[in-house]
Amino acid sequence: RAQHVFSEALRVVRFRQICEQETDTDTSDSTVGRELGDLMNQSQDSCRDLFECSCEELDELCTIARSAGSLGSRLTGAGWGGCSVHLVYQRNIDQFVNTLKEKYYDRHYPSLTPQQLSDTIFVTVPGSGAGIYVFED
Q1: Which of 74, 70, 60 minimizes the C-alpha distance to 34?
Q2: Which pTM value belongs to this model?
Q3: CA 109 to chain centre
Q4: CA-to-CA distance for 124 and 113, rounded, in angstroms?
Q5: 84: part of which helix (H) or strand (E)?
Q6: What DSSP character marks residue 86?
Q7: At what angle do helices 29-46 and 56-67 cross, to 10 degrees?
Q8: Cβ-Cβ contacts under 8 Å for 36 (sequence gap 6 or more)
């Protein structure tokens, strides 16, 4: 498990470096997306194999997501069930979500209502992260 912790720390540093690098005409969005996705996939594989905090359902969901066009798919949170996050080009989101619904959720949870599916699968975009605000009296 220690190997996972140390390699995950390196992946986080590398992910940040990629996000902060200056992009030029030689660095395409597809290259950056592929590099970030590879790090996410390595993280999921490490969570599964080294830290052993994944589960069959998350592994299956990530496999389906990768085959549906996700550049990177991994569990998020503490593991042992719960949530996953997927890096998908905006132009592919609708098809991606439909594939997850058909190949995973319809198969495992056929009684979910459209509202429950909408609450389960939702799209977000990256934000700037945490910040510190100082208020003066």
Answers
A1: 70
A2: 0.86
A3: 21
A4: 21
A5: strand 83-87
A6: E
A7: 160
A8: 15, 18, 19, 71, 72, 87
Distance CA 44, CA 107 (A): 23
pLDDT digits over 5-60, tens only? 999 999 999 999 998 886 665 556 688 999 999 999 999 999 999 999 999 999 99
Neighbours of 50 (CB within 10 A): 16
User: 8, exposed or middle or buried, with CB in 10 Å at 0-12, 13-18, 19+?
Assistant: middle
CA atoms within 13 A on the CB side of 97: 14
Q: Is 124 helix (H, G, I), strand (E, B) or coil?
A: coil
Burial of 7: CB neighbours in 10 Å, binned 0-12, 13-18, 19+:
middle
- Which H helix or E strand runs over 74? strand 72-76
| Sole residue written with tokens 């993280």 | 43
Instruction: Give residue for tokens 């609450």.
Output: 119
